[in-house]
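pipeline/complex-builder :: batch 7 item 3
reading input block
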Amino acid sequence: MSYKIAVLGVTGAVGREMLKCLEDYKIDCVVKGLASARSVGTKIPFNGGEIVVEEATMDSFEGMDYVLGAVENDMSEKFAPAIVKSGAVFIDNSSAFRLNDDVPLVVPEINGEDAFKNNGIIANPNCSTIITMMAVAAIAKLSPIKTMVSCTYQAVSGAGQKGIEDLEQQEKSLMAGEKIVPTKFPAQIVRNAIPNIGSYKDNGYTSEEMKLQNEGRKILHMPEMLVTCTCVRIPVMRSHSIATTVVTERKVSVEEAKAAIKAFPGVQLAEDIDGRDYPTPLDTSEQDDVFVGRVREDLTNPNGLCLWCCGDQIRKGAAANAVQILKLLITK
Amino acid sequence: MSYKIAVLGVTGAVGREMLKCLEDYKIDCVVKGLASARSVGTKIPFNGGEIVVEEATMDSFEGMDYVLGAVENDMSEKFAPAIVKSGAVFIDNSSAFRLNDDVPLVVPEINGEDAFKNNGIIANPNCSTIITMMAVAAIAKLSPIKTMVSCTYQAVSGAGQKGIEDLEQQEKSLMAGEKIVPTKFPAQIVRNAIPNIGSYKDNGYTSEEMKLQNEGRKILHMPEMLVTCTCVRIPVMRSHSIATTVVTERKVSVEEAKAAIKAFPGVQLAEDIDGRDYPTPLDTSEQDDVFVGRVREDLTNPNGLCLWCCGDQIRKGAAANAVQILKLLITK
């Protein structure tokens, strides 16, 4: 059976990667590529043929089985009612519906069963959150996580195609000895680090930083988990890295944690990557597994563990996770 | 009075910066530039004239008042007895003597008084440690720090001149579409992040990571302080950044902490850097102040505070701190 799938926002970095994931996961499907009016007619290769981009309208979703959303919140909010009314299931990468009680927020390896309790919308979590949760889920299953302190090292692709282009242009300007003029980021990103992703909340945290707690609680089914986070953009193309300290209810030993991480689906314990026992963002780009290394005892708390993880922000952090949710639904 | 000062390791990144700092701090001095045999005869501009590099030998230190050391541990250990015997005071940037009971470990703004209790050797702390301690010292004076969780974003200059050259060469290879071959770092550093600085200890931490606890305790006079740290190299030239969460004995409010940070010598609270309320590494390069931003409550502990700080690794993290120790000694 061939599924009818619309990709909403098909011309963006995540939308294009969703097409690649539909190919990679061998989803038997006919795809409608939707974007704003200015992209109409754009041709995108897919499955040996090509997709001709159509304008997304309220009528675009009739007859679709699934809609993969790779647009900003306002567009997701605009089209969601029409998608749900059409009877399609909307797997949405925006943050618009993630915390709604009647919308499951799903990382298939962690809480895949939640996906089936949907009312037409399933939310794909934030990219750093997916990658961090993949790294700590195995530990959380051994003992509930009480607190987590995380610092991120985030790729420019998290800011979309314009983020990628801003770094590329700045690298060229740097090499040419020309003035560097940021177009997407609030400061120079090449040879720099910017500790500000998202918008400020009243508590001094950014929206991106709060997602780790708010979305992490929902994914792990641990509503009391306390998370404090610092989100930092660095000049890396597409994999996010996160240094995390988790404190669990009971002590989990390093060996126990490593064994559980190694056994967890979609996660690889870094043991020998070109002789290194830790991943770097480049090691994990263009594929779907999250890599974990540097697992060691937290020196500030006997029940704490520290680790370092990396995962491709566009793949597992966005497009691949969405297509994995789709695959889960059609396989069951 | 003009002081006779030898700079040991004068041809390296830190050694050269020590000369600039001697100029910037207007130290009235005659400088002898010492290095290994292969650099003999190299001319380095200084104070309008130039220094001709001499080979460091056991006899190099006779008649010197101070020796600034910018060499590796083995060289510091080799020459220290001769320096002390000559009667000069050795301000050493290596880690060879930092934890010795009879060697003060000094950040002048924090524990300058310790410098006077020396027996001929004063140690300059690790670069990330200096910058982090500068950022948290104001809070520690309000209430002792019980625990600290830190993640670093470290510049390539921390690996010396060869680290700088490795990034520069990798950037060129990237732009030329050529294969990237790391010469100093254990993996590609351009467009990447490497969570491994220093050598592994038995507890899974690196030597660099343990310095923050071991040296931090000594600088702050807080021998019970527990610190857990993840040290990460990123493609930034010369300023280190550190995201830190500190838990203090009593609760320190965000406003109280900000006021104390703002009043602390050598530290600037970032309030408006081109409209931003946080520093980036580039904002803090080529100068000596440590900049602090993102001060906010730790969401995992009512007595915790989170902050982000940046400081020039070659200046305050190494050369400037050493010259500030020298200035303290000759001013008193």
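note: The longest helix of chain A spans residues 160-176.
queue -> next item
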